[in-house]
Amino acid sequence: MASLLRGIAKAMHQSTEVLCLDSVIKTYGSKANKVTALGGVSLSLQRGSFTAIMGPSGSGKSTLLHCAAGLDTPTSGSIRLGGTEVTGLSKSALTAFRRDHVGFVFQAYNLLPALSVEENISLPLLLAGGSVEKGWLDFLLHSVGLEAHSGRRPSELSGGQQQRVAIARALITRPYVVFGDEPTGALDSRSGKQVLDLLAHTARELEQTVVVVTHDPVVAAHADRVIFLADGAFAGHLDGASPTQITDHMSTLGEW
Ligand SMILES: Nc1ncnc2c1ncn2[C@@H]1O[C@H](COP(=O)(O)OP(=O)(O)OP(=O)(O)O)[C@@H](O)[C@H]1O
Ligand SMILES: [Mg+2]
Q1: 63 and 181 in contact (C-beta within 8 Å)?
Q2: Deepest of 56, 86, 231, 245, by most Cβ within 10 A of its Cβ?
């Protein structure tokens, strides 16, 4: 009975929409040199889902991620993140919302060199005026395999280790969504795989929603769903796909 109830609770939990984009258009520049980076994209992501976004260079992947994460504002359309219409927020409200509810992992790790691993991970919570729960911090340090290095400075870590600090930092506020723009782009393929395995594993364990942009079919195969973009529009999706299936679909989308 208890396990049945847990199953129902989990199913209800998972069917919760956490991110919704409705007809998002983003153009850059004015008349003569206008670029349409996103031509009206709609998307709905459920809580706990792991999504990869792929597409040729210039297809609008970073633009989509930046708009969805509130780092950039769309020209038109609506974006709801965790039930809040982010396109309606003032600049300062958006900054606070992002700080409290959105996690990022960029290609460049963006760690603060003067702070220790532990301090870098805790920083978003402290900036949000929260206090750090020791148990949660220890859990994250353990999850990313850095409990033995918590006092080190970023310069004393490898690239893969630094990216794992960035992942723990992105998770510390328990954000609605963690966004990654080519988070393994600067790593060799072995550390890239470790970082992605870890992100996928931790996300599943925590039912954390994750969206990553990647060029790598092996990385994308970690995702529940791969969404393809071409010329600022959707160009299909694959669920639970293998690297080979992803590569095959990529080859139908022209030059990469
Ligand atoms: N700030 C900007 N000003 C003008 N045009 C821009 C700007 N940012 C992006 N673009 C244009 O919008 C389009 C989409 O760019 P975007 O960076 O989203 O592509 P991408 O899919 O992330 O490419 P890549 O794989 O190379 O990172 C491109 O044509 C790009 O030149
Ligand atoms: Mg990009």
Answers
A1: no
A2: 86
- As a whole number of angstroms, the longest Cα–Cα distance in the chain is 65
pTM of the model: 0.89
pLDDT digit string, tens, across residues 56-81: 999 999 999 999 999 999 999 999 99
Ligand 1, pocket residues at CB < 6 Å: 28-29, 35, 37, 55, 57-63
Pairing of strands 17-28, 76-81: antiparallel
**The domain that contains 214 carries what CATH number?**
3.40.50.300
How many domains does the chain fold into? Answer: 1
pLDDT digits (tens, 9 = 90+) for 142-157: 988 899 999 999 999 9
118 within some domain: yes
Please report the atom of ligand 1 found closest to the CA of residue 182.
Answer: 27
Domain assignment present for residue 83? The answer is no
Which chain residues have CB less than 5 Å from ligand 2, an ion? 62
Of residues 201 and 8, the one with the higher pLDDT is 201
Considering the domain boundaries, does residue 80 fall inside one? Answer: no
| Ligand 2 center to 85 CA (angstroms) | 24
Residue 239 falls within a domain, yes or no?
A: yes
Overall residue count recorded for the chain in this entry: 256
Show the tokens assigned to 22: 């409705």
